[in-house]
Design a protein that fits this description.
This protein is α/β, with parallel strands linked by helices. It has helices at 8-18, 34-43, 61-68, 80-93, 113-116, 144-154, 167-174, 184-192, 237-249, 255-258, 260-263, 266-276, 289-302; strands at 30-31, 51-55, 72-77, 100-104, 134-138, 160-166, 193-201, 206-207, 214-221. Strands 4-3-2-5-6-9-7 form a 7-stranded mixed β-sheet, with helices on both faces. It has a two-stranded antiparallel sheet with strand order 1-8. Strand 3, helix 4 (80-93) and strand 4 form a beta-alpha-beta unit. Helix 6 (144-154) runs parallel beside helix 8 (184-192), helix 8 (184-192) runs antiparallel to helix 9 (237-249) and helix 12 crosses helix 13. Bound molecules: S-adenosylmethionine. S-adenosylmethionine is lined by residues 26-31, 55-59, 61-62, 76-79, 82, 106-108, 138, 140, 143. It catalyses: adenosine(1518)/adenosine(1519) in 16S rRNA + 4 S-adenosyl-L-methionine = N(6)-dimethyladenosine(1518)/N(6)-dimethyladenosine(1519) in 16S rRNA + 4 S-adenosyl-L-homocysteine + 4 H(+). Its main location: cytoplasm. Keywords: Cytoplasm, Methyltransferase, RNA-binding, rRNA processing, S-adenosyl-L-methionine, Transferase. S-adenosyl-L-methionine binds at residues 29, 31, 56, 77, 106, 138.
Length: 304
């Protein structure tokens, strides 16, 4: 599709015209390099015609790249100035017929495809699309993990996520058990799918230049038959996630100590770990998702 990606001059001019002062609280750093946009889109493995969800379109740098690749895009932006300006920016860099719907909303509050279908196209029309199959975004850094988990939870139609986040967050999401980086986001992401690093991005391609490094991380949802074995009756995600939170709240402690208060007392904690077949002197940071699932099942069976 014929589209002009945003240049550094475009980014400066749009910000000046709209009197935009990028804010740190909303993680507003805008990409002004077409090569980087195409690198992100390639890592996102999008196909033409596919309905892609974008969170935090900002000035439209990545949005235009997705449209260039032939995607249909629903973009969710929390900042009213940016959400309002996006249709005219995109029409000016391409055309008003491009398949982009813009929703002015906090991405953390978006819970259903019905909400996406309320967003009008940039020519004002309301169209109903099938649920998005992919999420591609340059996320606001302070809420990147909750945003990723929100869409994994509420949009089962999304088979793959490719996001640009702070490098440390990308490493956390894709970490395997044992190390210092492995934590709550690693285990929770592993409940839904397989996460992997998918490239690094120079901080020089943003305006303003952030004071952290950025990386791409990809999460591919498990296919049927992959992922943790949930048993019969299936253990609930809530039961497992509560244990994950408790185990990492005191990550330097043994599980026996870390789960004592959570279970009620030391005896119950020991019983829980024994029932799950997990050595009580291990630390939470050594457990993989299957072991947390075993703990969740044991807790459910013990009525904890
Ligand atoms: N995608 C653009 C780009 O690559 O240049 C902008 C990325 S910027 C890092 C993050 C964007 O997310 C900003 O436009 C910001 O206003 C928006 N944002 C921040 N918090 C949000 C939230 N909770 N829901 C939706 N958008 C949000």
């Amino acid at each position: 599709t014929e589209v002009n990606l945003l240049t550094p001059v475009n980014v400066r001019e749009i910000c000046a015209a709209l009197n935009i002062q990028p804010t740190k609280t909303l993680g507003q750093n805008f990409v002004h390099d077409g090569g980087t946009v195409r690198k992100i889109i390639a890592a996102g493995r999008v196909t033409a015609g596919e309905h892609v969800l974008e969170i935090g379109p900002g000035l439209g740098s990545l949005t235009l790249g997705l449209l260039e690749a032939g995607c249909r895009v629903t973009a969710v932006e929390i900042d009213p100035v940016l959400a309002t300006a996006l249709p005219s920016t995109v029409a000016g860099q391409g055309s008003a017929d491009l398949p982009l719907r813009v929703l002015l909303k906090d991405g953390l509050q978006v819970r259903s495809d019905a909400e996406l279908n309320e967003a009008p196209l940039i020519n004002g029309e309301i169209v109903e699309w099938e649920a998005p199959t992919r999420l591609v975004a340059n996320l606001p850094y302070n809420v990147a993990v909750p945003l990723v988990l929100n869409f994994l939870e509420h949009f089962p139609s999304i088979q793959e996520i490719l996001v640009m986040v702070q490098t440390e967050v990308a490493q956390r999401l894709s970490a395997t058990p044992g190390g210092r980086i492995y934590g709550v986001p690693s285990v929770k992401a592993a409940w839904y799918g397989h996460a992997e690093m998918a490239g690094t991005i120079s901080r020089q391609i943003f305006w303003p230049v952030p004071n952290v490094d950025s990386s791409l991380v990809r999460i591919t949802r498990y296919a049927a038959g992959e992922g943790p074995e949930l048993g019969e009756p299936a253990v609930s995600k809530e039961a497992v996630f509560k244990l994950v939170d408790a185990a990492f709240a005191q990550r330097r402690k043994t599980l026996r100590a870390a789960l004592k208060n959570w279970a009620g007392n030391a005896t119950l904690a020991e019983e829980l770990l024994a029932k799950a077949g997990i050595d009580s002197v291990r630390r939470g940071e050594t457990l993989d998702i299957n072991e947390f699932v075993a703990l969740g099942r044991a807790a459910t069976e013990l009525g904890i």
